[in-house]
Specification:
single chain; about 550 residues; alpha/beta; 8-stranded parallel barrel; 22 helices; about 45% helix
């Protein structure tokens, strides 16, 4: 019998049970003194420590692929960031701090700046804290916090997990992940889905427990805490059988696509059987650029990611940056609420030449690689904005133009927007946070960002209707598409394509192939009518069981 059952937000489906392994919190704060006898020598310790940390992360990345590899490489780059290390060295030289304390404070200042920026940058705060702790551990000669070496299968329970700790977990040993913090769009959630590990986040109070075992339902978001350890049990994570063609049991076609940001992601998508890509995040080609890459540099970067999809459809998203994802060459002033500020397409209104150069590079890369490219703009709120973008893209030679629906305004104006573009793609992560006015990085609000929220489903239903009436595609490229049960509900709401992490394709494809379109439409009706997200999932599941 369980000691207690806690509710969180299920972010990676699957069931598992087994002994609990508690993941320790970060290291204690390093002491601010005494001052080093030789400040220059003390400061000189910082960069070799950073190099050692970065090299270990890069070594781990060589054995990883796709998103896991990208996360490890990003963390390694952050560990060697010259600005962070330079600020730490100054704190030693000018303030007489020991190297561990200097790194701790420099990283803390960096994290505060990111948190104040909101949006995408706020999501990187956990990464900075992880790098901080790794550097402090290296400088003090102690073991870094995080996931200990596993000697057998276990359910990991933690306050939160750093992306670098999650990236290369062994799915053969990690039965499930449970965290007290985090949300459905966190790196932990995304990587857990990519690895096929059941996961529940935002489980309030789990760290206060002393359980020896746990039973986890990654779909329902429940965690049963057990007084005694139980024998490891897990659902078959490799049993999904998919023939590579997206369709329901009665032959209704649904394109199953991969979200990508690099050539490595594209190759992983092709290997997983993706029918194309529903989201190519082009901002990854800009993140390390001190100046705007010219059209030729962009063309080469885009072509590398498009080439694996020769002959297949790829939806390229124009630069999704701005106040929430500042790039040095954009020179956008700080804003009190960057998530609601000048970002996405809004940047191009004042700098249309930036968009024009990117469109030129995309068109050239498409011609070179043979990928069937469509282009969409992010952060659109009105039909007028959609029309402005469509005209500019078509003038640049783009044949198929669309926009992302991430704002409630765009969802409510679906008819007018679909009159001026060829398709829309729903970004459920942002649409959820804007619909419920809940920052997706705030763990206490994770339930409001649950993609099963009926308000979100009702907006998607309206988009599905508008697309159906006009004979135009409506896709989903948010993390909601990776949930096999929710994917079926989305199809029932009128969604025509689903784009997700490559690792989720087989499970989603197999689930769709088991149900007819009328069954999925009935499950969607049940979910939309529910009073809350848990009830929506439950009603949809029971509806499909009856069907």
């Amino acid at each position: 019998m369980p000691m207690s059952t806690l509710q969180g937000v299920g972010v990676s489906p699957g069931g598992a049970a087994g002994p609990v392994l508690w993941v320790h919190d970060r290291l204690p704060d390093p002491a601010p003194g005494p001052a080093p006898a030789d400040p220059a020598a003390e400061a000189a310790r910082i960069r070799p420590a950073a190099e050692a940390v970065a090299q270990r992360l890069l070594a781990r990345s060589e054995a990883a692929t796709g998103e896991a590899r990208a996360v490890l490489e990003m963390t390694a780059a952050m560990a060697a960031d010259p600005a962070l290390l330079g600020n730490a060295e100054k704190a030693v030289a000018q303030r007489g701090l020991p190297a561990p304390r200097a790194v701790f404070e420099a990283a803390g200042e960096f994290a505060e700046l990111l948190a104040a920026s909101g949006g995408y940058l706020a999501e990187r705060v956990r990464d900075v804290h992880d790098v901080r702790d790794r550097l402090v551990a290296e400088l003090t000669g102690t073991a870094p916090p995080g996931v200990p070496e596993l000697t057998g299968p276990a359910v990991l329970v933690a306050r939160d997990l750093a992306p670098a700790d999650t990236a290369d977990l062994d799915p053969g040993l990690v039965l499930a992940l449970v965290t007290e913090e985090g949300g459905p769009t966190s790196h932990t959630a995304i990587l857990a889905r990519a690895l096929g590990i059941p996961a529940v986040v935002a489980v309030r109070g789990v760290l206060a427990a002393t359980a020896a075992g746990a039973r986890v339902d990654g779909a329902a978001g429940t965690v049963e805490l057990l007084e005694h350890a139980v024998a490891p049990q897990s659902a078959d994570r490799t049993g999904a059988r998919w023939n590579g063609s997206g369709s329901t049991a009665d032959g209704h076609p649904v394109k199953l696509l991969a979200n990508i940001g690099s050539a490595a992601d594209a190759r992983a998508g092709v290997e997983a059987g993706a029918e194309g890509s529903g989201l190519f995040r082009t901002e990854f080609c800009f993140l390390d650029a001190a100046v705007e890459p010219d059209a030729e540099t962009q063309r080469q970067a885009y072509a590398a990611a498009l080439r694996p999809f020769a002959g297949k459809p790829v939806v390229v998203r124009t630069l999704d940056a701005g106040a929430d994802k500042p790039l040095p060459f954009l020179d956008i002033a700080g804003e009190p609420n960057p998530a609601l500020g000048v970002r996405g397409l809004r940047v191009a209104f004042d700098r249309p030449e930036l968009l024009d150069r990117q469109l030129t590079a995309i068109v050239a890369a498409a011609a070179e690689t043979g990928a069937v490219v469509s282009v969409m703009a992010p952060m659109v709120a009105t039909a007028g904005e959609a029309a402005w973008f469509a005209e500019r893209a078509r003038d640049a030679g783009v044949e198929r133009v669309g926009v992302m629906v991430e704002t409630p305004a765009a969802a409510l104006c679906a008819d007018e927007i679909l009159d001026v573009v060829d398709f829309v793609s729903i970004g459920t992560n942002d649409l959820a946070q804007y619909t419920c006015a809940a920052d997706r990085m705030t763990g206490a609000l994770a339930a409001l960002n649950d993609p099963w929220q009926p308000a979100l489903l009702r907006l998607i239903a309206g988009l599905g209707r508008a697309g159906r009436e006009r004979g135009k595609p409506v896709g989903v490229c948010g993390e909601a598409a990776a949930d096999p049960l929710l994917a079926g509900v989305l199809v029932g709401l009128g969604v025509t394509s689903l784009s997700m992490t490559a690792a989720a394709l087989a499970a989603v494809g197999a689930a769709l192939a088991e149900r007819s379109l009328p069954d999925l439409q009935e499950a969607a009706r049940q979910a939309v009518a529910a009073p809350g997200p848990a009830e929506a999932r439950d009603r949809a599941g029971r509806s499909l069981e009856r069907g």
